[in-house]
Design goal:
- Helix 6 (about 155-180) runs antiparallel to helix 17.
- This protein is mainly alpha-helical.
- The strands form two sheets. The protein has a three-stranded antiparallel β-sheet, with no helix packed on it.
- About 40% of the residues are buried.
- The chain has helices spanning about 75-80, 85-95, 100-110, 115-120, 130-145, 155-180, 195-205, 215-225, 235-245, 250-260, 270-280, 285-295, 315-330, 335-350, 355, 365-375, 380-405, and strands spanning about 5-10, 15-20, 30, 60, 65-70, 75.
- The N and C termini lie far apart (about 55 Å).
- The chain binds acetyl coenzyme *A.
- Acetyl coenzyme *A binds near residues 360 and 365.
Length: about 425
């Protein structure tokens, strides 16, 4: 924080309004506009493009330079040298764990992977063809009905146990939502396995045979979780904070985050990428789709391109692209038609004036969609996997908010509707 000031002059208000300006450790200064309401003014910023809604110490992004830091550590270093659960510890507690701390954390998470047997029955209420994200919104919210012992949000130990349960049970619930859709029995977690390996075991294993999860694929899945672990105040994280600001319980808040993530402009983009690649079908149709993406009268957009914050490159996409190459090599996939479409689209985005001018680079979802498809993950599960990885980010932000000072989130509006008018009885309408 600093003692800088901004001065605002507004037509019709005699005195200039002085507003405090704060500096963070990184990033642009922010103007505290809290005093404007006393002057009868609000700020107007649809989509929150210029609004810092909170103070946070978890994640920093410089979209222009393509920088993403978790607690100060660059994402590529975490993705290449750490693993998902260590990154979870870092996001939750602010520091990398030492050996004992890591072992204890991993063991705690591992011991919470099973879900209540009654919760497993919950799945039977869904249609067999329900989208797994629809199921996840329901079953994650339902956790609050099962864990009454962790619902006092003012109690630090309750917040901790809720965090452990959410991180541990998300892969189990995600795999159950898939198994339900294909009519296979749910797999219990195998706690001798690592986090990502266990998830793949629950996704692809069956009770009749021993699981055989490839270490290369487990590593790639762990990396996908790590790369999605947090991303500052995005739509779903802001949703979790807003829901949490009313004092709602953490399971309900995370269910709200899952709902916000589902949309194709956010986490749903990885699924939309694959659907788009399948719709394009082969490289001969690409020009037609690129022309549609550039046509202002056509709502079509190239999924997996562009980002609200990254106007250079998405540092996660760089690591994800390396992972995609590794996975495709491991699986011996070389001449897949969808991959050929993806590669050509990537070339176009880097060459075409339209994309260059608007700084529309392939984003993390573009490459994660390709890896997940190669791993045999059904398209409908892509956003669920994003939700599993992002759970720690949501819970870290929720915890940061609840353990500090906060007020209920209550945005205002620029009202452009009718001015006051008198009610008309039915016979005069
Ligand atoms: N294809 C074609 N044109 C695009 C695309 C795209 N994918 N994305 C943006 N544009 C164009 C817009 O039409 C606009 O053009 P104009 O200036 O001529 O009107 C310009 O680029 C700026 O677009 P905005 O919508 O203002 O950018 P915004 O920052 O609001 O949107 C978003 C970012 C939502 C990610 C957008 O780029 C998009 O819809 N991309 C496709 C969906 C996607 O991949 N989402 C994943 C995001 S990453 C994540 O959530 C992990």
């Amino acid at each position: 924080m600093s003692d800088k000031k901004a001065t605002l002059t507004v037509d019709g208000i005699d005195e200039p309004i002085e507003l405090p300006v704060y500096s963070g450790t990184l990033g642009p200064d922010v103007i505290d506009v809290g005093a404007l309401t006393a002057k009868g003014l609000f700020t107007y910023d649809p989509g929150f493009v210029s609004t810092a809604a909170c103070e946070s110490q978890i994640t920093f992004i410089d979209g222009g330079k393509g920088i993403l830091l978790h607690r100060g550590y660059p994402i590529d270093q975490l993705a290449n040298q750490s693993d998902y659960l260590e990154t979870c510890y870092l996001l939750l507690y602010g520091e990398l764990p030492n050996k004992e701390e890591k072992e204890k954390f991993v063991s705690t998470i591992t011991k919470h992977t099973m879900v209540h047997e009654q919760l497993a029955r919950f799945f039977q209420g869904f249609r067999r063809d329900a989208h797994p994200m629809a199921i996840m919104c329901g079953v994650v919210g339902a956790l609050s009905a099962f864990y009454h012992d962790s619902l006092d949000i003012s109690d630090e130990s309750h917040r901790q146990i809720a965090a452990f349960r959410l991180i541990a049970k998300m892969p189990t619930l995600a795999a159950m939502s898939y198994k339900f859709s294909i009519g296979q029995p749910f797999m219990y977690p195998d706690n001798s396995m690592g986090y990502a390996e266990n998830f793949l075991h629950m996704m692809f294993g069956n009770p009749c045979e021993p699981s055989n999860v490839s270490p290369v694929l487990s590593k790639a899945m762990d990396r996908i979780f790590t790369l999605h672990a947090d991303h500052e105040q995005n739509a779903s994280t802001s949703t979790v904070r807003l829901a949490g600001s009313s004092g709602a319980n953490p399971f309900a808040c995370i269910a709200a985050g899952i709902a916000a993530l589902w949309g194709p402009s956010h986490g749903g983009a990885n699924e939309a990428v694959l659907e788009m690649l399948e719709e394009i079908g082969d490289v001969y149709h690409i020009d037609e789709f690129v022309a549609r993406a550039k046509d202002k009268n056509d709502p079509f957009r190239l999924m997996g391109f562009g980002h609200r914050v990254y106007k250079n490159f998405d540092p996660r996409a760089k690591v994800m692209k390396e992972s995609a190459d590794e996975v495709l090599a491991e699986l011996g996939i070389v001449d897949d038609p969808l991959l050929a479409v993806a590669k050509r689209l990537e070339e176009i985005a880097l060459e075409d004036e339209y994309f260059i001018e608007r700084k529309l680079y392939p984003n993390v979802d573009f490459y994660s969609g390709i890896i997940l498809k190669a791993m045999g993950i059904p398209t409908s599960m892509f956003t669920v996997i994003f939700a599993v990885g992002r759970t720690v980010g949501w819970i870290a932000h929720w915890h940061e908010m609840i353990s500090g000072s906060y007020r209920i989130g209550r945005p205002r509006q620029l009202y452009t509707g009718y001015t006051q008018r008198d009610f008309k009885p039915m016979d005069q309408r």
